Amino acid sequence: MSLPTSPFIELANTDQGIYLKTAQARQLDQLIEAARAALDEKLGEQTALQQEHDALAQGSDDLRRKIALQEEFVSKLEAQVPLIRNEKEFVASKKQLEEGRRHKGQLEEQQLELDIQREDIQQKLSDLNSVIAEHRTEFEDQTSQLQQQRDEVEQELNGLRAQQQQFKSQIPDRLQRFYDKFLQRGMSRPICAAHKSESSRKEAKHEWGCTGCNMVLPSQLINEMISLPENPKHCPHCQRLLFIPADALESEEEPQAADA
Fold this sequence. Notes:
74% of the residues lie in helices and 5% in strands. It has 260 residues and is mainly alpha-helical. It has two domains: 5-168, Helix Hairpins (Orthogonal Bundle); 173-259, no CATH class. A hairpin with a 6-residue loop joins strand 3 (233-234) and strand 4 (241-243).
């Protein structure tokens, strides 16, 4: 399968750029997230206190409605009891009135206790809001440069993605389908360079590896790629499409030329 080498390699280089920039963006996001941890902790405390305050406020409102109903009930009894002439009925109504007053007093005490708790939480919220404002300022100071770098990386990523689509449209349809399926499987860099390792031992043979999966490539595969560099080959380990960079290809051809 022959194809123009340039768009194929340019697409691989663009994918590599996207891969590196995505990693850089992820690292910047982690730094921003770490800087935000202290602020998020205080915001969590604020949310918990606000929820507690709202619950107390709801409880206080419920008690206020119950007190109003009890007060209405007591007022009716206070108006009715003096008019009762039946002694037995009078005693029973008076006892009911006393119990109504006592219950009303208990409700008022409960409401007062809730209001005191709510005022205490309001003060805590006020103090916490001041702390949050300080943390927010500190967070913004720490992350302003990080966010600027993150925005720049995102702009570069957008440019690389546009180049990616441009170069992809220039390779054969069959390779485009392979390329898209490879990405759909959640794998990055469908096209990778073959890389020649540097041996620390003299006279030791250099090994070629796939820069996508870092596995050693068979020498026969490398020989075929050197002989026909315009024909892409699949890595036998990760199935990525491979190419040999021009500088590596030239270094391989030089010894052959010298031998000739």
